[in-house]
């Protein structure tokens, strides 16, 4: 089993280039199923989740050509694409459910195993299904599978009880080929939704309002191929910003869109970190003055991202003052707390709240990456802990961070991948 060995060294210093967004590229790849011809996606990050999505598309009959050296993928989907997603792949990656919308729209049917819960919560897909039903699909659950089917999808009004990212994406991808107009309200406003709408519009879809709380879609008869560059990963960006802060370093983050990380910029500034930016570079300086605490409340975009909550906790354990962290998006996203406490963080949790005391002297320990962002938080804690931090189950981290070890080492960190048992 691969592990990361992390040791405290000098503050991080230098430049780092951000890769394409994991959460943007996965729905784009699913959306490529809708085209008649080959779609080309550029700035694709080299990640395990991308490999799983490639395997899933291939299992459905798509011809996928992966060129990770050039960060490009092309996806061509035959007219007779299959409609059932294999259990082994859906089990590996929850985002596999994103093929439901495109398959339903293209073939009139989609069958996927029930994705089940994961480390951070129950994660149901009831809102995805509610949208498909509104568009005229029938939903059946049997033998651990969900099957959605419709002879012809019809445009409809859909209201989401919560602005779910995945539900917004899945319903959009189904509605683009529906007959007539769909209006989806209380949708997610994440940049990844805008990227997907831009991609679909390049393919010939008619989507308006992405990035606001209401999306309007005029159905079209068919979609064509297109070329598209994935947006930079805002969570990887935020993670490197916090890595600079936790080590009291000075790091220039390139290929980063400051507009997508406004809450992270605001919260780091509240902590006393100096941040300057232009259109696509962010300079993070935590070497100038002592850092202080701030409270965090996670919210759907444009609020503070739940995907940055664990990493921020690692930082808050090291600064002056106490902090309250409130998690409102997922019901069980404090798995990293037990691991950080192993390292001496002394965090207390009660329901959706965590109480942190600052200025803890973290100690290296054997810890487990329980999920992707929890794993990132442990890496950040390891960068400032005395002794060696040994992080196991790092495949979670590799699902979502491209070349994390190399990128951190280039900034002067002591981190290595160990495959010894
Ligand atoms: C996406 C991101 C993930 C991020 C999350 C929230 C991808 C591949 N993943 O996940 O990194 O942490 O957004 O920003 O883009 N919910 C329901 N019913 C549904 C759907 C969701 O109750 O049908 C609930 C979930 O249980 C959760 C909340 O809504 O509590 C947010 O989930 P959602 O926005 O759907 O997250 P994902 O799309 O799964």
What does this structure look like?
The chain is an alpha+beta fold and 421 residues long. It has helices at 22-31, 48-59, 87-92, 100-107, 126-134, 165-175, 191-202, 234-246, 262-270, 309-316, 335-342, 372-382, 395-398, 404-410, and strands at 3-7, 13-17, 39-42, 63-67, 72-76, 109-113, 138-142, 145-149, 157-159, 181-185, 206-208, 214-218, 227-229, 250-254, 274-277, 281-285, 296-297, 323-326, 348-350, 353-356, 366-368, 388-392, 414-418. The chain is 30% helix and 23% strand. The strands form 6 sheets. A 4-stranded mixed beta sheet has the order 21-22-1-23. Strands 2-14-16-15 form a 4-stranded mixed beta sheet. Strands 4-5-3-13 form a 4-stranded mixed beta sheet, with helices on one face. Helix 12 links the parallel strand 21 (366-368) and strand 22. Helix 8 (234-246) runs parallel beside helix 10 and helix 8 (234-246) runs parallel beside helix 12 (372-382). The mean pLDDT is 96. The chain binds uridine-diphosphate-N-acetylglucosamine. Residues 23, 26, 95, 121-128, 162, 164-167, 188, 192, 306-307, 329-330 line the site of uridine-diphosphate-N-acetylglucosamine.
């Amino acid at each position: 089993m691969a592990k990361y060995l992390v040791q405290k060294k000098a503050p991080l210093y230098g430049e780092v280039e951000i890769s394409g967004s994991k959460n943007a590229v996965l729905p784009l790849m699913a959306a490529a199923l809708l085209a008649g011809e080959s779609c080309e996606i550029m700035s694709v990050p080299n990640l395990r989740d991308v490999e799983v999505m490639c395997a899933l598309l291939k299992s459905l009959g798509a011809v996928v050509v992966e060129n990770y050296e050039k960060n490009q993928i092309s996806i061509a989907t035959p007219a007779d694409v299959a409609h059932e997603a294999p259990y082994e792949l859906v089990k590996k990656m929850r985002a596999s459910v994103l093929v439901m919308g495109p398959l339903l729209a293209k073939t009139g049917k989609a069958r996927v195993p029930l994705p089940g819960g994961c480390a951070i919560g129950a994660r149901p897909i009831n809102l995805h299904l509610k949208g498909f039903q509104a568009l005229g699909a029938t939903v059946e659950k049997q033998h651990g599978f969900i099957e959605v089917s419709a002879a012809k999808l019809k445009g409809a009004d859909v209201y989401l009880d919560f602005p779910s990212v995945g539900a917004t994406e899945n319903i959009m991808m189904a509605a683009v080929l529906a007959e007539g107009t769909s209006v989806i309200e209380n949708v997610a406003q994440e940049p990844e939704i805008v990227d997907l709408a831009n991609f679909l519009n390049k393919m010939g879809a008619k989507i308006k309002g992405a990035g606001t709380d209401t999306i309007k879609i005029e159905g079209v008869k068919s979609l064509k191929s297109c070329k598209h560059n994935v947006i930079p990963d805002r969570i990887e960006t935020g993670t490197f910003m916090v890595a600079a802060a936790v080590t009291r370093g000075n790091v220039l983050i390139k290929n980063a869109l400051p507009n997508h990380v406004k809450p992270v910029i605001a919260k780091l500034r509240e902590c006393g970190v100096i941040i300057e930016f232009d259109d696509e570079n962010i300079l993070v300086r935590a070497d100038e003055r002592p850092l202080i605490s701030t409270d965090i409340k996670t919210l759907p975009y444009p609020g503070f991202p739940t995907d940055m909550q664990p990493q921020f906790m690692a930082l808050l354990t090291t600064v002056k003052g106490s902090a309250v962290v409130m998690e409102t998006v997922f019901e069980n996203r404090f798995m990293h707390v037990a691991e950080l406490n192993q390292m001496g963080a002394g965090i207390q949790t009660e329901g959706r709240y965590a109480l942190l005391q600052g200025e803890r002297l973290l100690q290296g320990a054997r810890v487990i990456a329980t999920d992707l962002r929890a794993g990132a938080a442990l890496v950040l804690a390891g960068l400032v802990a005395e002794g060696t931090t040994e992080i196991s189950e790092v495949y979670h981290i590799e699902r979502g961070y491209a070349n994390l070890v190399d990128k951190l080492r280039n900034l002067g960190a002591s981190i290595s991948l160990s495959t010894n048992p």
